[in-house]
Amino acid sequence: MRRRWTMVAGWMAVGLVVAGVGIRLAADLTPPGGRERQVTLKVVDLLTRQHLSQHPLDDEIAARALPLLLESFDPLKLYFTRADVEEFRRSQSQLDDWLKQGRIEFGYQVYQRFVQRIDERLQLVEKLLAQPVDFTIDETIVLDRKSLDYPATPEEITDRWRKRIKYDLLVLKAEKVEGDQARERLLRRYQNFARRMKQFDNDELMETYINAFAMSFDPHTSYMSPSQLENFRIMMRLNLEGIGAQLQTDDYGHTVVAKIVPGGAADKHGKLKPQDQIVSVGQGDDGEMVDVVDMKLTDVVKLIRGKAGTVVRLGVLSPNEQEIKIYRIVRAKIELKDSEARGEIFPVGRKPSGEAYRVGVVDLPSFYMDMEASRLNADSFKSTTRDVQAILERFNKEGVDAVVLDLRRNGGGSLVEAINLTGLFIDEGPVVQVRDSSGTVEHYDDPVRGMVWAGPLVVLTSKFSASASEILAGAIQDYRRGLIIGDPATHGKGTVQTLRELGERLFPIANPPNQGAIKITVQEFYRPSGDSTQQRGVLADITLPSLTAHMPGAESDLEYSLPFSRVQPVRYTPYRLVSADMIKVLAERSQARVARSPDFQKLQATIDRYLAQRERKSVSLQEEKFFADRAQLDAAREEEKKIDELENNSANIKRDYYLDEVFAITVDYLELLREQAIAASR
Q1: Which residues contact 237 (CB under 8 A, 6 or more apart)?
Q2: Residues known to be catalytic
Q3: pLDDT tens per residue, range 183-210
Q4: Going from the N-terminus, what domains does the chain have, and what CATH number goes with each?
Q5: Count of C-beta atoms within a 10 Å radius of residue 637
């Protein structure tokens, strides 16, 4: 149990005053000091000078920031009370002034109140779980958080939590967990949540607070704490050094293995398995074994990560075993293969000669680049363009007839890589235009003459295709270089962010300390035709039914998203590989096939049920009605399933009914191009 100070669970008396209110800090925190003030002032300086909107840090930003801050802690409005929020609002007009002074104490005040409410709600949860639950009462729970207000009275608080627990118990019952086991699991879940929230450190709290302001400028501007900056670097260079295991925290607060990365150190070691619990970590062959039970997951990860070639020892408790085993694993460099480009060739349809067409599919989850290695002018570094170029050169050697570039799960990445990759498919010319905060517009051209792939091209997109992937798709469409197939529109993120590492600006020395960074929106990008993709996205030439098209989360759904705009087009020379008449024929043929397809018919039925359920703002807590609704479709579950499919693709490109329809369109496209070539030669 956490040590108690001055009879308040988890708090230690520290003299600090915010707006005339004395506050106490969690035992894991220290009052914000000089470092926090320096970082905050530098973030404010960069935000106000360099953000694309040139919006001042003023009362309007403060009015946006306070609700975002409260939502970051309590998105379901289960913890804070209406009186809490009204109290916080009395300080709202001063928040921007305090931030300009480098003062972030208000964030500590909100966090302190949040932890206080967590303790109170946990006592309520324990009380409610000890009482019988009547699942025959015909009542509902409101799940649409936007239609909820914060509870005002103790009775409202109790009723909201009673219904929440009832809902959670029904969900567990659907997962075949009932009775005392369900109650115990639910109690553990809320206890673990309380434990995690009380483990916030200064960096996490500062990140949460500053981000409420940063994201009030636009949803893609954010502050990264030092640990988050390191994670971002790892993601962009697609490798890290460690054991090659993905970890997560379960309902009991245990650190468990979620996945073993193929080819990593743990995989080669052979003993660590998914669902194993890590209870202790030791450095080297004789370092002390540190107990990690109840430790924050981020801290456990820090202990396990380390330089390739060094030893880490793990105390492991496997499911259904009582004995803790010690595994000695030599850390190694881990390539994150799931995020890099890959290509496969598929036989499709029949040519006039009778043999199958060969269609090469490139699956590209992100536009990655090892920024550190690039900045240091390394001879070779991880690069999207290099990887895709190698795939396309292999396709050329193996005689593919068409290329399908799959960007359906590509959320963006490096702007440089998007430009260079587009250049693999066009000979020369502008790829993207960029406007900065002063209104200056520049265009960036394909840096290398010639095309690596000059044949027919199809680009697959979805609502999840964002940013850099929209640059490529927009340029391909403007140049009439290939077909865009997928959801009606892409995500609609038409802004450019740059990373400003704060250590370099606070300490102008070689190898400055990691002080985090700010990712800041500094430009908006435009297609060669002059249209932005901001909010509007890239519209598909041919649409196919999909659940992702109807899921929330497009740029236009995000708070404080910047508006759509246009600039003057630049000169470029389109190809003659796509025409309006061709698209019309291809779309009609595809629609006829989709209408006859049992798989697409099932998908459409799922979409219809999903949309009907998503329109509902509440869910029945009467058991029979709850399970009848759930048997039809659980919208949240379908969203999670689809997102999981997009984020955790298997090692091989999956050929399913959707991709088969893309292949059918591709074959029609090849045949229309052949007919067009024959007609032109006469």
Answers
A1: 368, 369, 370, 371, 372, 373, 381, 382
A2: 467, 478, 493
A3: 998 998 899 889 889 988 899 999 999 9
A4: 4-217 (no CATH), 239-335 (2.30.42.10), 337-681 (3.90.226.10)
A5: 12
